[in-house]
Amino acid sequence: MTSPNPEMNVPVVDVQHVTKSVTDSTGTLTILRDIHFSLAARETVAIVGASGSGKSTLLSIIAGLDVPTQGTVFIDGQDLFARGEDERAALRGAKVGFVFQSFQLMANLSALENVMLPLELAGRRDARAMATEMLKRVGLGERLNHYPKVLSGGEQQRVALARAFVVKPKLLLADEPTGSLDFATGETVMNLMLELNRELGTTLVLVTHDRSIAARCDRRITIEAGQVSRMEGPDTSAAAAVAPATGIKASVHPPLAPAL
Ligand SMILES: Nc1ncnc2c1ncn2[C@@H]1O[C@H](COP(=O)(O)OP(=O)(O)O)[C@@H](O)[C@H]1O
Ligand SMILES: [Mg+2]
């Protein structure tokens, strides 16, 4: 008996009414309020918003690195926060890749060793061959044994892309990946990321404050002071399926209460 293709129904990312507050001696600060959206396989979304609006916090929660105060996130149908930290880390290791503004390569490992690392953690015996292949794919076949400190910013970010994509993650989370690169290098890195994304069928959540980069994603979600203020692009989530077929789903929220 064949079961229905899960890719058809289960979103790769399903962010369900996520709220994040932090409390200290000065009171409670709400960083994210009722964030709700989902992404199908291969969809790309840009999260845009001013500095301090909550974009990185949202990405950390989708990664399971930070915990929501209310709501939850499903990755490929599995509730991230209904499991312990170890299980969450295993789910992340199996399904999620990351790219950061600051590259986050291991300084004491060569380019090749950096890319081999996630494969070795996954117990892959062919880590060296796979990592070599992926570094060639990002144009760094001549740089395998070089350490991050001798690579340019653009080259380091290409190593980071190779490391993220080499495990063929279902989901890639990228937090301002071109934010510390000059314009031309940023373009090269962005083109490569979108190419790899298409080749490997990855779902992409990209944080950026660059409108021209955001325009290259299927959808855009704007966050202001921790709330979704605007959604643009086709929403293929179940909620959208019952909404009028405008292709655009506006998200209306109550006014933001004072955060403090
Ligand atoms: N652990 C924390 N404790 C207190 N405030 C935090 C914490 N994490 C983030 N913030 C605050 O939440 C807001 C959103 O931060 P962040 O998600 O980094 O925004 P962005 O990535 O959009 O610039 C900022 O005002 C930041 O100072
Ligand atoms: Mg940020």
Q: Could you explain the architecture of this structure?
A:
The protein is 32% helix and 25% strand. The protein has helices at residues 6-9, 55-62, 85-95, 111-121, 127-137, 153-165, 183-200, 211-214, 238-241; strands at residues 13-24, 27-39, 44-48, 70-75, 78-79, 96-100, 171-175, 203-207, 219-224, 227-232. The chain has a single domain, classed as Rossmann fold (3-Layer(aba) Sandwich). It contains nine helices and ten strands. Bound molecules: adenosine-5'-diphosphate and magnesium ion (MG). Adenosine-5'-diphosphate (ADP) binds next to strand 2 and helix 2.
Total E-strand runs = 10
At the fourth CATH level, what is the homologous superfamily? P-loop containing nucleotide triphosphate hydrolases
* Mean residue pLDDT: 88
Main sheet: which strands, in order across? 6-7-8-3-9-10
Percent strand equals 25-35%
Total helix count?
Answer: 9
Bound molecules: adenosine-5'-diphosphate, magnesium ion
Q: In terms of quaternary structure, what is this?
A: single chain
